[in-house]
């Protein structure tokens, strides 16, 4: 049972209009946003930040951003965000082989060295204590420019917020996210956990 009950999608019309963004991303408005709208300034600010972070300004693709989000969420253990991130990666064109082998991104041939550097950055930046070091920096600069690194850290930071929000709230997970979680992550033990 969630800590705070989500409100109806019609509760705040400005949030509802902004949240249409998630229909493309996930196919539904997340329960996390429906909970945030108990304070509409938070839900609106979150959606606008999400849109800004997920906009493509360079070579960091939408699919890679969602895989960065998955690695971050996997690192922190948020099952809600793990399922959402893998679902969004699928909807934004991640290769089937990458989706099927996301757990093995470090060694699987479906991932390039540039993608591995980005995903290792996500893992290091999501840990407590933070593990970003000179090696991570060196590998990033071999493949990405500073604007793209800012985009990546934007995703990692956004999901830091979401991981804390959804794991603390015990946000109820939506059916579509459950389907994606079971399909791509279930073979490695993913389950809804407290997000029922």
From TrEMBL:
<dbReference type="InterPro" id="IPR029032">
    <property type="entry name" value="AhpD-like"/>
</dbReference>
<protein>
    <submittedName>
        <fullName>Carboxymuconolactone decarboxylase family protein</fullName>
    </submittedName>
</protein>
<dbReference type="Pfam" id="PF02627">
    <property type="entry name" value="CMD"/>
</dbReference>
<dbReference type="InterPro" id="IPR003779">
    <property type="entry name" value="CMD-like"/>
</dbReference>
<feature type="domain" description="Carboxymuconolactone decarboxylase-like">
    <location>
        <begin position="40"/>
        <end position="120"/>
    </location>
</feature>
<dbReference type="GO" id="GO:0051920">
    <property type="term" value="F:peroxiredoxin activity"/>
</dbReference>
